[in-house]
Amino acid sequence: MSKRRGTSLFFTFLIGILIWFAPHSESIPIKAWHMLAIFIGTIIGVILKPFSMGALSIIAIAITTLSGTLTLDETLAGFQSSIVWLVVFAFFISSGFIKTGLGSRIAYYFVVLFGKRTLSLGYSLLCSDLLLAPAVPSVTARTGGVVYPVAKGLAKSFGSDPELGTQKRIGSFLTFVAYQGSVITSGMFLTAMAANPFLAGLLTEMGYSISWGQWALAALLPGLISLIVMPLIVYKMMPPGIKETPDAPAHARKKLAELGRLSGKECLMGGIFILLLFLWVFGTYFHIHATVAALLGLALIIIFEILDWKDIVNESSAWDTFIWFSILIMLATSLSRLGFTPWLSEQAVRLVGGMSWQGAFAILALIYFYVHYFFASNTAHVGAIFPAFLMVAVSLGTPPFYAILVLAFFSSLSGGLTQYGSGPAPIYYGSGYIEIKDWWKVGFVLSIVNIVIWVGIGSFWWKIIGLI
User: Fold this and answer.
1) CA-CA distance, 154 to 159, in Å (whole number)?
2) Residue 275: which of 287, 293, 295 has the closest Cα?
3) Does the CA dihedral 257-259-265-266 come out positive or negative?
4) For 387-414, what is the mean pLDDT?
């Protein structure tokens, strides 16, 4: 065991043990206190990373069961969640995009169409990400595996390379726009990021629900406005040295030529994707659950041999997500079921008592957003504090669905604050195109802009479409 891993593991268990044996309120059942210790220890482990998230989750359920905090059946309940299986199926579907090359082809097509100027080149990357987002629940796979290589290839084709000290010619702008775009698109669809279905699963356990169509419709207008405004701000604050890119379409055509003609499997993959979008949007009218629609899509992918069973078995990211996702849902919902989350919400209500719900919720929402400076994972952020913040907001008189929408979208948008804020962030930062001071400065400005757009314009939009 490395020294760093040993130190991280020590602090993870130390924090858990301190909480386990700390004095606690008599109004909280002892099992709820023990569950809190296990949960906080797991979240700290996710942040410090002594082991992978999946390994930490296995350790957590072993402690949960052996300590008698939960029974074995209660501990394994998360593996039955339909939301968990929706994510797993969507991971397999996204593999079809990558294996067939359809994802990269879509990205290069947009570059051909819109890539004659640096600013429009940035928008072409956003269009690719937006089109793929509904069917690719791993933001790391989508933007890190499809969009990022396109952005990096384009930057280097214009001689913009950190090793040459020319990163600001065009590369800094393209990579930062691509990353910040992924933060926005991840919030626009229930299936665009693993943390979103996790959040939806927590809602179900709390007695609320949000459908795929409701999520997408609520995010449509504020999301599109953010995608339009964000590149303009980055362009102003991180101006590229190259403003015109007449050679970009030629570079993209070369890459498309290397991909060859559109294959039959790519056409089939595109058709299945359209079918899935239809069922996710209108499935409720046909009594087809989103998870059932995803299962149908995966079955078609297997039937038409876009993926074979070996591809399914070897999709380690999907199975890894299945394990930690199921366990985190179980830990977070058990906190509520055992009585800790309701108790915490009562204490918070007492602290802000006397304030209007609008003022109190504004404070809660801002804390929820900016506390992400202390998280390196959207999923960890959601699991650690979303249920408690939602319960407090509702207890203060905030309309439940309004609170759900704001906190759900903030769960994604807050990932743009730092170079470690979400899965693909280290990939973009590791490219060397963006300095930390630029990331934090521009990221903070964009956070304010996104909050104004999603809460300000979003609130009017949600009223117009009848969601609140």
Assistant:
1) 9
2) 293
3) negative
4) 93
Spell out the alpha helix ranges (H) of 283-338: 290-303, 309-313, 316-337
In the three-class reduction of DSSP (H, G, I as helix; E, B as strand; rest coil), residue 117 is classed as: strand
> What pLDDT sits at residue 8?
63
Q: Which of 29-38, 79-88, 245-254 has the lowest mean pLDDT?
A: 79-88
Q: Which of 421, 417, 409 is nearest to 459 (CA)?
A: 409
Are 442 and 238 in contact by the 8 Å Cβ rule? The answer is yes
| Distances 388 to 198, 329, 355 between C-alpha atoms, Å | 15, 14, 19
Can you tell me the distance from the alpha carbon of 294 to that of 290, in angstroms, rounded to the nearest whole number? 6
- Start-to-end CA distance of the chain, whole Å, equals 52
The pLDDT, as a whole number, for residue 463 is: 96
Query: Which pair of structure tokens corresponds to residue 404?
Result: 């759900």
Q: pTM for the full model?
A: 0.75
Task: Map out the domains of the chain as residue ranges.
Answer: 82-196+210-316
Q: What whole-number distance in Å separates Cα of residue 177 and Cα of residue 110?
A: 15
Q: Are 16 and 38 in contact (CB under 8 A)?
A: yes
The token pair at 414 is: 């807050």
- Residue 412 is predicted with a pLDDT of 95
d(CA 341, CA 339): 6
In tens, the pLDDT along 410-446 reads 999 999 998 878 877 877 887 888 888 899 899 999 9
**Pairwise pLDDT comparison (117 vs 227), residue with the higher score:** 227
